[in-house]
Amino acid sequence: MFIWCLSWLSIFALSDFIASDISLYWSFGSACAIAGCGALARRYRHDRVALFLEACTVPAIAAALSAATIIMLASVSGRFVDVQLIRIDAMLGFDWRVIFDFYLAHPWIVPISETAYSSFQPQFLLLPVALCLWRPEMLWPYITAYIFALLATAAIFPFAAAEGPYVYYGIPQGIVPNIGEEWPWQWHFGEWITQLQKGETQDISKVWGGLVQFPSFHSAAAVLFIWASKSIRFLRWPGLLINVAIILSTFISGAHYLSDVLAGCAIGLLSIWAATSVPILRWPTRSSFPNLSPQSA
């Protein structure tokens, strides 16, 4: 990840891209500084301190690098593939509009879907800390899988950019209560990508909300969250229920086709396999860190 960080910073410095929101610089710089303290703690065998600092910062650094990489790749992405994604859905017997009509007919489900979808952020922040406390030997396999999923998503994205079902089907903003009320990003995938392709914007802070339609990273992350939380006894079933809800919520709250969701789940499973089975990616076992001992969970 250090090489990834240096490469991205070099490209960013040499490109026309900027970030007008100064807080992005401060947040990224602070996370890198704290991660550096973690590396120093590991150097002096303070393994528990090192793991805690890594848990708090490394996933965030990787996510920021991935988001910035995706924004840059959007400028060279191909044509929108909504037609192809809808065709795949049809082959699987799925019609996104049926789910949308269900939400319209049962508006009480919208807040549940929105809550489930937004649970991604607290899990992203807190699950690594929980692993550090109760299953320290699982932290770096989880982080490795998470980074692998980010890289796979970024690599696929420019070949499968899409506008999303709300725009493709001409569904106006506001027709579904509570969807996109505060920030209607679900309606702007295509607009932002087109602006980047035409060079109409170089400010990454204006499109930081997300551009990826296929594959669904929320679905990939939900699979990783289920896998990681399964190792902590009291999080096992809550983690399963919450993250199944995340996957189901991606259709409307995340504006995803079924093909997006299935591809995201596949990336999650592939990332777990890579982190646990590919020798070059496997993290040392607990015996390599004698100062670590998981607490009861």
UniProtKB/TrEMBL annotation:
Residues 84-273 form the Inositolphosphotransferase Aur1/Ipt1 domain. One of its GO terms (cellular component) is membrane. The keyword Cell inner membrane does not apply. InterPro entries: Aur1/Ipt1, PAP2/HPO_sf. It comes from the Bacteria. Keywords: Membrane, Transmembrane, Transmembrane helix. The chain crosses the membrane at residues 23-42, 49-74, 139-160, 207-227, 234-255, 261-281. It holds the Pfam family PAP2_3. This is Inositolphosphotransferase Aur1/Ipt1 domain-containing protein. It comes from Sphingobium indicum (strain DSM 16412 / CCM 7286 / MTCC 6364 / B90A). The lineage of its organism: Bacteria, Pseudomonadati, Pseudomonadota, Alphaproteobacteria, Sphingomonadales.
